[in-house]
Each structure stands twice: as structure tokens, then as C-alpha cells.
Amino acid sequence: GGLGGPIERGTFSFKAPAGTYLLSVFLPPDSAYTAGSPQTVTLASGKTLTVTVIVSANTAKITGQLQDTTGKAVTGFAAQVAATSGKGVWQEGVFDRTTGTYTIRVSAGTWYLGYEIDPTSGFISLREPGITVVIGDGETVIKNLVVQKAGSIIKGQVTDPDGKGVFGA
Length: 169
Known about the structure:
By secondary structure, this protein is mainly beta. The protein is built from no helices and 13 strands. The chain has strands at 19-23, 33-34, 39-43, 56-57, 60-67, 79-84, 90-92, 94-96, 101-106, 109-117, 126-135, 140-142, 145-146.
């Protein structure tokens, strides 16, 4: 909920009101580590809570290319490709817009891929990670991601119960 702060040399500290929180650590793209699962922590008023977050070494890589339905690389647009563990752990990859390729460093396990692509590209993003990759220590898995062209149009109108268009909808 908007609380938090930077991690510097493995440590972090930030102020928060008393309460119960889900503490997550987010590491930068291409990090050497994967953060542990989010932890539920309870902070008492006026107290300091010390939390240890254990990370795993990223010994594996998921790599591939964003491709259209004909297998051609999608290039020239910004995109983000990321993997989630399904347990709240998130790893963002590095995307090369000139080649359409991506690389995500991950720890061994099951990961779910998703991507966001610049909407001016004419392609649709897959924000809900739904492509499964199982990977072991030291492995590299190549997973090309097929992006769908937005070639059709949905039109509509928002109306009130009397059938009049709603302003500002």
C-alpha cells in the first residue's frame, strides 16, 4: 500500500504506522537474486521490527523473443517481460527492442510469464502471467512468446437507466 523504501547494501528501513502488512522485496531487472516469498508482519505502535528476507541465487535463465503469429520478431517498441512464482515473487526481464528478445534471470522452480507491450505497437499485452516454465539450476529455457495483433474494434456506449449517454464515464 505505498509504504517502503530502497535497499542499500542488503539493508532497508522505513517508517510505517502500526498494523499488519504483507512485506515484499522487489529486485531490479537482471538481478543476481530472487527475493523470497512475501511475509506477513505485524508492527506494534512505537516499536521497531527487524525482518530477514532470504533470497535465492538466480542460476537459471528464461530467454526468448516476442513474435507475431507468423513467427516474425516484434521489434521497435518498448516491452516488459516478467516472471512470477505464483507466490508473490516477481522477476522482471531485460528486453531488447531492436531484436525483440528478452532474458529473465531466475532461480530454479516453476515460473509464469507475462508481458506488456507499448499499445502503439498494435499488439495486446498479456498482463496476467499464464505461460508456465519449469526450470532447474543452471538451465536455460527458450520460450518465444506469441503476441496477438489488435486487428478488431469493440465499440460501445455507457448509458444511464434512461438510455442517455453518461458524461465522464
